[in-house]
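Need a sequence for this fold. Nothing fancy.
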C-alpha cells in the first residue's frame, strides 16, 4: 500500500517530536555506602587497602557544606623509585561518590592536594593514595555538616 504525502509528513513529524523529548535517567540523589565501596574498588581493584601514610586535614564540623577546605598529603620521599602515583578522594552521601582524582610523578616534589569540596550532608570522606610500588593507603574522616550542599529538590 503506497504511502501518501500526508501520511509521510505525519510520520516524519512524529519522529522529530520523539527525538526532542529528553531522555531522563534516574539515579539516587545521593551516593550510598555501596556506591562508595564500588567506586573505591573501581580504583584499587582487589588490592589490599592499608591504613597510614595518608593525612586528611578537613574540619570535623562545618557550618556550610558548600565550601569545605580539605588537604590530603602523603608521606613519601617522591624519588624515582618511591613516589605517590595518585590520590583519590571519595565521599559517602554526595550525588557522586568520587570527589576527585589527582596524579603525581617524582617531579611533583611533594604529594599534597589542597582544595575546597562540597558535602551534601554529614558523611564520611575517604582519601586513598596509590604508591609506585602498587600499594594503596587510606584514611577516612567523619564530617558533620550543619547546612547541607549538593542537594537537588524535586517539586
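Here you go.
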Amino acid at each position: 500500500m503506497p504511502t501518501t504525502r500526508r501520511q509521510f509528513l505525519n510520520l516524519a513529524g512524529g519522529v522529530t517530536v520523539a527525538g526532542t523529548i529528553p531522555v531522563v535517567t534516574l539515579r539516587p540523589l545521593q551516593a550510598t555506602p555501596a556506591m562508595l565501596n564500588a567506586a573505591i574498588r573501581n580504583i584499587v581493584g582487589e588490592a589490599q587497602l592499608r591504613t597510614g601514610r595518608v593525612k586528611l586535614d578537613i574540619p570535623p564540623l562545618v557550618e556550610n557544606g558548600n565550601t569545605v577546605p580539605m588537604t590530603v598529603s602523603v608521606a613519601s620521599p617522591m624519588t624515582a623509585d618511591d613516589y605517590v602515583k595518585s590520590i583519590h578522594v571519595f565521599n559517602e552521601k554526595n550525588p557522586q561518590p568520587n570527589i576527585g582524582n589527582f596524579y603525581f610523578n617524582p617531579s611533583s616534589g611533594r604529594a599534597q592536594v589542597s582544595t575546597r569540596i562540597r558535602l551534601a550532608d554529614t558523611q564520611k570522606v575517604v582519601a586513598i593514595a596509590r604508591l609506585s610500588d602498587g600499594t594503596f593507603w587510606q584514611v577516612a574522616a567523619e564530617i558533620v555538616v550543619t547546612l547541607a550542599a549538593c542537594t537537588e529538590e524535586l517539586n
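For context: The chain has one domain: 29-147.
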